[in-house]
Amino acid sequence: MAYADCFTLLPLILIAGTSIVVMLAIAFKRNHALAAGLTVAGLVVAFISVLAVTPYAPRHVTALLIIDRYALFFMGVTIASAVAIAMLAYPYFDKHAGHREELYVLLLIATLGCTVLVASSHLASFFLGLETLSVSLYAMIGYLKDRKSLEAGIKYLVLAAASSAFLLFGMALIYADLGTMELARMVDLSIMTSTPALLISGIVLIITGIGFKLGVVPFHLWTPDVYEGAPAPVTAFIATVSKVAIFALLLRFVYQPGLHQYRAVFLVWVIIAVASMIAGNVLALLQTNVKRILAYSSIAHFGYMLVAFLARGSMAVEAVTFYLVAYTVTTLGAFGVVTLLSTSGRDADTLDEYRGLFWRRPLVAGIFTLMLLSLAGIPATMGFLGKFYVLAAGASAAQWSLVIILGMTSTIGLFYYLRILVVLYSEAPERETPTQPVVPASGLVLAVLSALLVWFGLYPAPLQDMIQRNGVLAVAGSPAPELDKLSQHIDSGAAAARNTRLPTMHSSK
Amino acid sequence: MILVWLIVIPLVAGILAWLTARWSTQFPRWISLAAMALDLIISLAVWIRSGTTVGAGATTVWLAEVDSSWVPRFGIHFHLAIDGLSLLMLVLTFFLGIMSVLCSWTEIGEKIGFFHFNLMWMLAGIAGVFLALDLFLFYFAWELMLIPMYFLIAIWGHERRIYAAIKFLLFTQLSGLLMLIAILALFFMHHQATGVFTFQYGDLLGTPLSSRAEFWIMLGFIIAFAVKLPVVPLHSWLPDAHSQASTAGSVILAGLLLKTGAYGLLRFVVPLFPNGAHEFTPVALVLGVIGIIYGAVMAFAQTDLKRLVAYTSVSHMGFVLLGIFSWNAFGLQGAVMSMICHGLSTGSLFILVGALQERIHTRDMDRMGGLWTTVPRFSGAALFFALASLGLPGLGDFVGEFLVLLGSYQLSVGITVVAAFGILASTFYALRMVQRVFHGENTQHWQLPDLSPREAFIVAPMIIALLWLGLYPQPVFNTFAPAMQNLERLANLPAVALQKR
Fold first, then answer.
1. Does the pLDDT value for residue B496 go beyond 50?
2. Does B73 touch chain A (CB under 8 A)?
3. How far is B385 from chain A (nearest CA, A)?
4. What is the least distance, in Å, from the CA of A460 to any CA of chain B?
5. Which residues of A touch B149 (CB under 8 A)?
């Protein structure tokens, strides 16, 4: 492996190295602050290395990884989020009676898995990254070793293992059909294949695996339980870093080989998107637990992102990327507030604990309000622009039914965000609840997240420029399908009989 | 720049009011009052200056304009502009803004800082709606004014405030999202036709659309505006929101928020979709008349005083809808006149009802009666506004409704006849209200303080303004006439363009 290859892999190497350093540090001296400090420092250095590597992108490092600007952009997002989570986790676990330091090792390894995922250009590295992520997550979810935490950990373990099996089977089918597992080579081969049924079955099985990790309907059943059972900072990690990395991979996996042009694949995603939007929002209405509400809301949000994803073309990638960033900032902020109000003994997750919070702790409640408004897509927040982007992407592909379903369901979504808001601003209970002071680290994280939320909500141009420069993915096939062809395609059932592929496939050749 | 100040001043005042509340409960009130007064002075200055510029054959209808790029990726501009129509709406906004600060002076005793923060930010949002000439910016302001309103209802409202607040927000949000989708559809269709990405009002005018697309896009806009106005099948949030909100909330809801719906129809729906609007006219006229009659009948049946006044709004807004969709000089003048006068007369009625509720802690008319003997000045003022509301000649509302009827007469005699019955019905509910509350026997033996100097100070300018608008409305007509002619011209443009093609 050449020196240049090693250099472009620097972010990955640094994260892996940090995990070893933290592990060794624990072996010599068990100190919570030291472990957390090393973790944050290592991640920050890794983040800087991402910036340093950027000029040398794109570069293939073996057949497994591609370090392009797209991968680096998402590495930046995941590493920055991991920093925020490490800083939020420190005060949370500080009171924890058991061993606290190993969490950071797990956090680093999970982050490493995510960075591999976003850079993978091969089904093997896809699987390796995913398993690195998942195995660390099992331990992180069950970290508190109380009943709820362990139950969530086991549940995730069993279901994730099953989904991995689907994933592997799908990869095997694709390999059997095409004889390659490289995403880039699949483009050419998939056109010549004589047995598209095998290929499509493989893709659909992989979709099952990805869908499980994203927690989209109908693979969502683990989401609320794991969100509820996992320690709050770990929930934040699952909700943001891991899902963002997998969605980034999904875009690459589907767009680069042009798999979105198969009608069956398209339809499967349409069904998943609609089901996620409806089920996520409706089921959230029935919850009284804040973490569960946020779980269902994340299901719905991935439904929205799928609407943009289905719009295809460069606009879709841009919209999804913007939405992912907005979603990450907002969700981190929301779980940051939950983490702030919790201790490792007990998470502040029932709605009652938030009653009248605004009149007791106006700043914390104010930040939570901002995050909820952003999740609901109210203007002056990033969430609004994200929703705008998604709607714009949907509208640009003339997918009116999806766009209207998005509008309707997000109004349902507003209802349960409002329920939390109502509680936040209602009369404070008589009994005085003890409030622990805000630790500077978490305070800083929340302040930065709120500032980002409003700044990019009001003036998104810098972020848009960055996404346009870095986040653009080479999309196989035509950029945006012709509107009339697409509407024909969606409207008429006859299209199914015509061909398994969209007409645009041929125009790309 | 002056237009940016109109929005920035309340935003800053809101933050200041929130921050200073910890030192004194008086600070937020005075800060808000000063901000509104400042904005009112600025807008009046623009108005006075406009008398000299517009009259002399001006080349543009925009009295002032600000335009700078905001989100270049989508061609979104921060584009504010003011014409006669926006100007009148802004003057009304800041005038009622002062009144709503004054009328909450004693009513709001808790969480004063946060109350004024919401009040100011909502007024800034409303000002933004009346000023925005970029469709994205318009939607931005449109949504921004809802959240503070939600808080105003949900925190400082009456007994069923949460229910009312959520209902209000869900209705307006859903309809708002439909409008956003419609805006995006228009945006992309414009791009398809011209290759330009733009949300600018001026550019989007005259976008060639197939009649089917035009109809659906227009419907998205109309639903959003019809919910706000409200048009009858979409009105059910209104009685709850109005009756549960605190006085300032009701005043702003009735006086300003409903006007944003009418403003949207005037500014956007008809000029952007002239053919669609033409097709929609029969439906709109029928819905307007249904609103007039339905609102009046429902108002007659209420025992809750605030709900009664709320239903009168439904009835009055029916006239506005009728006037707008008549789309001739009389109808438009009448619609704008009705919007202004309804803001003043209904706003005042809400202020008086709120003041009464502060005194006797009920809105139930069954528990009132014979109040004239104990609060004569108060009752006199209430009678005045009730008369204004029922359309007594010599007061502003009469001018507006009369002109609307003149306008709609040119389209349909039948519709006009039924609408005229609405005026008759308004006499019933207004006089019944006055009779039940202020006349008859004082069964509950109320002994109440009469109008305080502060309340008199609120009521007096309202009375003067209504008398002025009723007796000498010409300056107002002169102000918005160029704007109206411009809108009519814009609405006719694409039709010509299509014929050429």
1. no
2. yes
3. 35
4. 7
5. none
Give the DSSP letter string of A43-107. HHHHHHHHHHHGGG--EEETTTEEE-HHHHHHHHHHHHHHHHHHHHHHHHHHT-SS--THHHHHH
- Residues of A in Cβ contact (< 8 Å) with B215: none
Asked if the model's pLDDT at residue A497 lies above 50, the reply is no
Q: A184-193, A422-431, A487-496: which has the minimum mean pLDDT?
A: A487-496
Decide if pLDDT at A447 tops 60.
yes
The predicted-structure confidence for A458-470, as pLDDT tens digits, reads as follows 999 888 888 888 7
Q: Assess whether pLDDT exceeds 90 at residue B112.
A: no
Domains of chain A, residue spans: 3-476, 477-509
> Per DSSP, which regions of B58-142 are E strands?
64-71, 76-82
Instruction: State chain B's mean pLDDT as an integer.
Output: 88
Over residues A211-224, the pLDDT tens digits come to 999 999 889 999 99
CB B360 within 8 A of CB B352: no
Q: Number of Cβ pairs closer than 8 Å across A and B?
A: 72
* Chain A residue whose CA is closest to B71: A461
| B110 vs B212: which has the higher pLDDT | B212
- Residue A303 identity: G
Exposure on the CB side of residue A243, measured as CA atoms within 13 A = 31
- Give A276: exposed, middle or buried? Use CB within 10 Å, 0-12, 13-18, 19+: buried
Are B395 and B466 within 8 A, CB to CB?
A: yes
- What is the rounded distance in angstroms from the CA atom of residue B155 to the CA atom of residue B152? 6
Q: Please report, as a single letter, which amino acid is at residue B255.
A: G
**Which pTM does this prediction carry?**
0.89
Task: Determine the residue of chain B that is closest to A466 in CA distance.
Answer: B73
What pLDDT is recorded for position B500? 35
**Cβ–Cβ under 8 Å, residues B289 and B318:** yes
Shortest Cα distance, chain B CAs vs residue A449, angstroms: 20
Cα angle A488, A491, A493 (rounded to 5 degrees) comes to: 100
**Residues B172, B234: Cα–Cα separation, whole Å:** 10
Do residue B177 and residue A410 have CB atoms under 8 angstroms apart? yes
Residues 6+ apart with CB under 8 A from A292: A224, A227, A228, A284, A349
Integer Cα distance of A122 and A178 in angstroms: 13
- Read off the DSSP letter of residue A143: T
The strand pairing partners of B200, in sequence order, are B134
Nearest to B232 by CA among B311, B347, B302: B311
Tokens of B447: 């002994």
> In the structure, how many helices (H) and strands (E) does chain B have?
22, 2
Q: What is the pLDDT of residue A478?
A: 37
Which residues, in sequence order, are bridge partners of residue B79? B67
